[in-house]
Design goal:
The mean pLDDT is about 90. It contains six helices and seven strands; from the N terminus they run H-E-E-H-E-E-H-H-E-H-E-H-E. A five-stranded mixed β-sheet has the order 2-1-5-6-7, with helices on both faces. The chain has about 170 residues and is of the alpha/beta class. It has helices at about 5-20, 55, 90-95, 100, 115-120, 140-150; strands at about 30-35, 40-45, 60-70, 75-80, 105-110, 125-130, 150-155. It is about 30% helix and about 30% strand. It has a domain at about 5-45 and about 85-155: Cytidine Deaminase, domain 2 (3-Layer(aba) Sandwich), CATH 3.40.140. The radius of gyration is 16 Å and the shape is globular.
């Protein structure tokens, strides 16, 4: 007899399954909205509907400069990010009913970035559960969620379903 999955694993598996729809060359991210063990929506990162995505038109990269503290010294670091895609959390908020988000849980493959965390903070959700950390914004996001009273949990021992991690993911 197989062991029944716990709810966190079950819904995070669904987020990873949603991520397989992504056509992003850099990372596939999925998110699901859950209320009372009921799935209310699923989304993934990608270009707006009807617009060529990164796999068709290439990434739309912009360069940014950030201050980064390394070994006690501030350094300017040049980074690239794609602005063609809408993040999974943003798509989830766009395509779910605001009433459904009240006191709901968002399961997401990756810890939300600062922008997505701000949007989730105003969405009415009560909890975020994620698997892969996003160290760049981790402390800021944790502080924001604490201020908002939103629980944020990292499931570091979770194992994604076979075949859901793309070769491009790091």
């Amino acid at each position: 007899m197989t062991t029944r999955k716990d709810w966190d694993t079950y819904f995070l598996d669904m987020a990873y399954m949603a991520s397989t729809r992504s056509r992003c060359n850099r990372r596939h991210v999925g998110a699901v909205l859950v209320q009372g063990k009921k799935l209310l929506g699923a989304a993934y990162n990608g270009a707006p509907m009807g617009v060529p995505d990164c796999s068709e038109a290439g990434c739309m990269l912009v360069e940014e400069y950030e201050l980064d503290e390394r070994e006690g010294a501030l350094q300017v670091v040049k980074k690239q990010r794609c602005i063609r895609t809408i993040h999974a959390e943003q798509n989830l908020l766009l395509f779910t009913d605001p009433k459904d988000r009240e006191h709901s849980i968002v399961y997401v493959t990756d810890q939300p970035c600062w922008t997505c965390a701000n949007m989730l903070a105003n969405s009415g959700i009560s909890e975020i559960v994620y698997h892969r950390p996003y160290p760049k914004d981790s402390e800021k996001v944790a502080t924001l969620m604490e201020l908002k009273g939103i629980i944020i949990r990292h499931l570091d021992s979770y194992e994604p379903p076979a075949g859901t991690l793309s070769a491009a993911q790091h």
